[in-house]
Amino acid sequence: MRFRSEEWLKLAMLTWDQVGRIRPRLTMDSDSDLVRQLRAETGFLFDLEPSEQDLDTVGELFAQIAELGGGELRGRFSVRAAIESAPAAPAATGLRARYPGLVWVYAGGIGPKMTRSLSFSLTRMELAVIAEEDGVTHVGLHPLFARIYLTALADAMAASALLSPVTDDLDSHSAVGTLDRLYELLLEKGARRPAIGDLDHAYIHLAVEAVLRPTNIADVPVRKLIDFRERYTGELAAFRKHVGSLSEELAALAAIENPIAAHAHLHSIYRSTTKPQLEELRRAMRAFGVESSTGMLGLKVDLASGTIIGGPVATAGQPVVAAAGLTLTVAPYVAGRIKARRVLREQSQVAYLLAVDQHLASRSLFKRR
């Protein structure tokens, strides 16, 4: 609910029509001046709270997995172990001082991020601590367990609201689109992976130069970016629609099972359509007095369903096909043990990961697990 990087937020303004964040109504307002300006002058940002359905979907999955592997979960995600291994934090206050090393999930009465039943179950299993701060209930979790839980919640919320999960944190994004992979993420650290040829167990990761990246973006006034968005609303919308169509092209090629052939087809589209549109937008930005380059945008396509379900986090060692402006790889994944909730994933829309240049170069997308 808090943006870690104002530069990332400025890039997001040039990439998406709107961005929603998971922010309960009663949480303390700690927005930056930039966020306040965007909220006051544009409709770009909006807040979301988990619905009861979202909470129940994720809560039931975590509860079932806890029943199957409670001992193993304690071995990996015990709150006691997280507290005892936490480094000293002299400046910490409140819950962070009392329970160092834990990540706190809001569980208040309005807009909670976890059901009461799940929080009590996790507490009994020594996987959570329930505590209050300033009269508001929070649940403390092992950092990795919290990361997986919150990412799964964001994924469920995106699917039910027909939105697309996005983050500037690749580690978090590795779990996006994986409601049916929670068993593996939580318990099967060294899970055996199926063959790439199995379309029921494969992603294609696409990285494409399709982001406007202003030079010295930190120094570009946000008002100038707002004016650019307003002046070129139609052109930006058309470009977003085109980039989304790349996933449709890729999914249509799934039956070929040949990343080289898929890449050749998509690269032809990139040269003829994507690149010219992007260059036109760069010229328009130059007219506003802002020089820009191109940045990487990542898409992750589920070959089984033909839908986009997350950002790129390919498995090392998989075939990579690269050319100027476009990089493609195929990576297998283990389908989850619990399939009943896959219906949510089938509702997912196009999902993007906005690549920040200091963290992501085209090839670095495919060197992370």
Structure description:
This protein is globular. It is built from 13 helices and eleven strands. Strands 6, 7, 8, 9, 10 and 11 form a six-stranded antiparallel sheet that branches. The longest helix has 29 residues, at 259-287. With 369 residues, it is of the alpha+beta class. A hairpin with a 4-residue loop joins β7 and β8 (307-310). α3 runs parallel beside α6, α3 packs antiparallel against α7 and α11 runs antiparallel to α12 (259-287).
Chain-wise SSE layout:
Elements (H helix, E strand, L loop, with lengths): L5 H8 L5 E4 L10 H9 L3 E4 L3 H26 L1 H7 L8 H5 L4 E4 L9 H9 L4 E5 L2 E6 L1 H18 L9 H4 L8 H6 L14 E13 L7 H10 L1 H20 L6 H29 L4 E11 L4 E4 L9 E4 L2 E7 L9 H5 L6 E2 L15
Parallel strand pairs: 1-2
Antiparallel strand pairs: 3-5, 4-5, 6-7, 6-10, 7-8, 7-11, 9-10
Helix-and-strand structural type: alpha+beta
Mean pLDDT: 78
* Alpha plus pi helix count: 13
- Radius of gyration (Å): 21 Å
Strand content range: 15-25%
Which descriptor suits the 3D outline?
Answer: globular
| Helix and strand run | HEHEHHHEHEEHHHEHHHEEEEHE
User: Whole-Å distance between the termini?
Assistant: 25 Å
Range of helix content: 40-55%
**How many E strands?**
11
Question: What are its keywords?
Answer:
369 residues, alpha+beta, 3-stranded antiparallel sheet, 42% helix, globular, disordered C terminus
